[in-house]
Amino acid sequence: MATIDGLRKLAEHSPVPSQLGWVAGAVAPEDLTPGLLTWLDSENPKLRETASTWASRKLQDHGAPWLVEALARPETALPTRRHALALRIPSESEYWDALAQVDAELLSAYWNEMHPWRIRAQDADRAAHELLGHDRPWAAVELLAASLHLGRSDEPSSVTPALVAEVLDAALASDSSAEGRAQSLGYAIGLLLDYLATEDTELDRVARYEFMFFRLLEQHRQPRALYAVLSRNPTVFVDLVSRVYRGKQQPRRQRGEGEEALARHAWWVLHHWRELPGLRDRTPVVGPSAMRVRGGWWSRSWRSRSGSGSPGRCGVGGCCTRSASPRPARGPRAGC
């Protein structure tokens, strides 16, 4: 008959304790449960890993009732063990409901740390709002992207354009340093923007997101809506230029930290754009000669914006032309 001491020796010598725990979850007798629950916060990483995957298998096979029963045992009275067990639950509403009934504080701790993958599309709305409520908008971005990427067309989904916009707005308003961000966030945001585009979201709204997330997107997705707006509406283009450059006779500007960051961001967008403002036929324009043509366009844009009586505006086109040349990008000169 299997004993907890025998299982301990096996776990301590196992090169893959996670696999041992998964098998134990399927075949270990019930009298080993008290001992395995105490391993959830063990100082021995192999015992802890064995217990974690054992709990995952138990939860998968026996559902939320087993979770409620395990949390009622004296062995899980310690907060560290309860916390470890909660983080092993499948990301499904029945388990969230069970935690809410048993221990609301434990459920809150779960949302603070849970990984936002493998959540069913029908539960995405609830999970996203829980993450937003726990100040984790970037995790909500990953959650929705995973739901769109992995979801099946025949599966009910709670993802809507309004939900995606709410999550993206929360991410924009958040402190990016307060929450760890995965390297795949650019890809995730690209999926959300593709979804908004297919749902006939207003072009200007998608363009706004593409502008604000430009640096995250540049290795994953072309900002099609943003470039379309810049091409069709010279006023928007001129507004970006005005944040970066000043006329020859304008005094140097003293910007705050936020204004300076926005100016550099605008410069980065302009530096990567390869089209002309106001064109209906969006033919790509590249190369030094094209930059000289672009300078002319920019000068005329400034005339239309500022009026013929404002001297020095046309020089902005030349300034921009030099900055957009094929030489290494350094951003706008200080004081522009």
Q: How many beta-strand runs?
A: 0
pLDDT below 50 for ≥5 consecutive residues: which ranges? Answer: 284-311, 317-329
Q: What shape does the CA trace take?
A: elongated
User: Termini distance?
Assistant: 80 Å
Question: From N to C, what is the helix and strand string?
Answer: HHHHHHHHHHHHHHHHHH
Largest sheet, in brief, is: none
Helix- and strand-based class? mainly alpha
Helical content class = 55-70%
Overall pLDDT level: 80
Domains (count): 3
Per DSSP, what share of the residues sits in E-state strands of 2 or more residues? under 5%
> What radius of gyration results from the CA coordinates?
28 Å
Number of helices: 18
Describe the structure.
There is one protein chain. The protein folds into 3 domains: 1-114, no CATH class; 115-223, no CATH class; 233-336, no CATH class. It is built from 18 helices and no strands. It has helices spanning 4-13, 17-27, 33-38, 45-72, 79-86, 93-102, 104-113, 124-133, 137-150, 161-173, 185-198, 203-212, 214-217, 224-232, 234-244, 257-272, 288-306, 315-323. Helix 8 (124-133) runs antiparallel to helix 9 (137-150), helix 14 (224-232) packs across helix 15 (234-244) and helix 15 (234-244) packs across helix 17. The longest helix has 28 residues, at 45-72. It is elongated, with a radius of gyration of 28 Å.
